[in-house]
Amino acid sequence: MKKAIVSIAFGLTASLLVAGSASAQATLASVKQKGYLTCGSNTGLAGFGLPDAQGNWTGLDVEFCRAMSAAIFDDPTKIRFIPLAAKDRFTALQSGEVDVLARNSTVTMSRDTQLGLDFPAINYFDGQGFMVRKKLGVSSAKELNGASICTQQGTTTELNLADYFRANNMKYEVVAFATSDETFKAYDAGRCDAFTTDASGLYAERLRASNPDDHIVLPEIISKEPLAVAVRHGDNQWGDIVRWTHNAMLNAEELGVTKANVDQMKGSDNPEIKRLLGSEGKFGEAVGLTNDWAYRIIKHVGNYGESFERNVGEGSKLKIKRGLNAQWTKGGLQYGIPIR
Amino acid sequence: MQTAISQASPPKKSFLYDPRVRGIFYQVLLVCVVAYLFYMAASNAIENLRRAKIASGFGFLENTAGFDISQTLITFSAAGSTYGDAFVVGLLNTLLVSAIGIVFATLLGFTVGIARLSTNWMVAKVAMVYVELLRNIPLLLQLLFWYIAVLGPLPQPRDSYVMGAGFFLNSRGLFMPRPIYASDAWVIGAAFAIGVVGTIVFRRWAKKQQESTGRQYPVGLATIGLVLGLPIAAWLVLALANANPVSFDLPVKGTFNLRGGMQILPEFVALLVGLVTYTAAFIAEVVRAGILAVSKGQTEAAGSLGLKPGQTLRLVVIPQAMRVIIPPLTSQYLNLTKNSSLAVAIGYPDLVQVFMGTVLNQTGQAIEVVTITMGVYLTISLVTSFVMNIYNRRVAIVER
């Protein structure tokens, strides 16, 4: 709570006192000058943003920041992670407390147009689901009439929940908490019959339950949740870096460029690979980076598929299928925009 | 030295060296600087918001909220209610927990404060341990303790504790019968109102009688009779006339939870208990200080007049102690109200949780939302202070 108050106070003071001219257009310069990137992260969501036992941040969102750091500094560790609760995240970005927000945040029209933010890269296509205890004997979200449901406040989840029960003419009792941690603990302690968040989050949180096998995820997906990386509106160069970091990772996967073979691929004759890795054209310079920016990303972090499998896919405890997040060539929605 | 001062003639005053003029000049300068800073901050904020393309203004209060709230004292639904309604819901929830909290904290605080001065060693030590324990642990930890450790382990709805008479206790809260009033139930309310007015009139009369004649009347009994007896009599009459004025909707087991009846949320209970026990510890100290401020001679004088210890406390000590107690007690009331914003940690939908949590995040209008919230707490605090100051003036010692 103190955190929330501090960050809101910070946001207020900053927007009151900081001169406007300095805030736009200059994020890359200020990041280069201070020598590190501040990345707004989840307070702790397995697979997306979570410090491991050694205190190193891991996850799909975290690796996005690492890729940006690699592109800018040729070093994936020049980052300060700021863990943010859902209700504090946008204020923290608006006020300049973080340079980029990679924190499983759903992009919606109002967030894009009214919060002074841009969402240049959707790094995970998700949808909202429900988790319940097995012993309740519920097999569909349509059977949840009269249930108590725990959710995190200040999320699209909270709104979709209201929509879904209204559309299906069902009653429910909402219990909203400020952080995902408090929300899940309350559900795990039995305060609620069901827990709702993005499907990826359900699988991640289930691992933290006192007994994960007691819980099942219901089959219904009740919303579209395109989880995107956010930056402040108006700094187009910085927005471009986010957009093309994501596209570089997608194109690398599509072209078969991996962390392991990237040095070898540098000698490839394929013009697309040559443009990606910077041996042809000056694409990096156009966004204020070096021309081997994408090489750095893949060398230090890997392509999108590698990052996915390592953090949320088969290589992780979550075992989430690629599904919507497969390459477009494999029936998914992830479509790398050509670098040329 | 004395002679030197007395002999010095007053120097010829220059306008610049007149301390009064200087004082006014600096005051005016300060006001100008402060006003300018506020103006700069406000115009800078508006300019920056506009430049950053962040929505501003208070129009969002009219927009549909689209989310639900667990405890609402007014009708609230995701479909039809606005952010403005959500604000009212949060405000009422804050006022509810604060008002009930102030009443109970006062009762508990006075009890513990007086108990600390008890001649009974055991009672005094128990009160001391209570005070030292409760006021030296951060309130946030106490709230989490009540919510997670005390109310958390309550059974699931299917295994509710059945407390009889339609009362159930489980992890979703306390369930109780909800009274349903028939059309003629207003008679009972009217009887209650008559009882209250009658009590006030009788008490005034009895006091006057005692002051002029010294005769005492059974005020306590009369109060109970009027306030409780009249409504019960009214209810009995209606019930005998076969027009049962009040029936009860009992909670029954549903698929997930109990259905029907009234529900008190565990979040509310945890917050209320936490605030009451914590603030009562401070109030106890305020009360103790107030009583100790009344000189021992007063107690001895009362004793020599033949007053019993209870009467001494009630008629001699407390009235004099009140003038010491009221000002710090007001601070404690304000603290309790402001501390209720810690509700955010345990999911009770108070003003901060609903308005500064959900509404702020869904609209993104941090400056407006935070300003409104601060304004509300300021208003609540000033009104509380104002009321307590009026009371303070009434109990203040009359200088003769």
Question: What's the main sheet of chain B like?
Answer: 4 strands, antiparallel
Helix count from the secondary structure assignment of chain A: 15
What number is the mean pLDDT of chain A? 88
Number of domains of chain A: 2
Strand content of chain B: 5-15%
Task: Tell me roughly what share of residues is in helical segments of chain B.
Answer: 55-70%
Q: CATH topology of the largest domain in chain A, what is it called?
A: D-Maltodextrin-Binding Protein, domain 2
Number of strands of chain A: 12
Give a short account of the largest sheet of chain A.
Answer: 5 strands, mixed
Terminal-residue CA separation of chain A: 47 Å
Structural category of chain A = alpha/beta
Discrete helix count of chain B: 12
Keywords (chain A): Signal, Transport
InterPro entries (chain A): Bact_solute-bind_prot3 (IPR051455), Solute-binding_3/MltF_N (IPR001638)
Domain Solute-binding protein family 3/N-terminal (chain A): 36-265
Signal peptide (chain A): 1-24
In short:
Chain A is α/β, with parallel strands linked by helices. Chain A contains 15 helices and twelve strands. In chain A, the strands form three sheets. A five-stranded mixed β-sheet of chain A has the order 4-1-5-12-6.
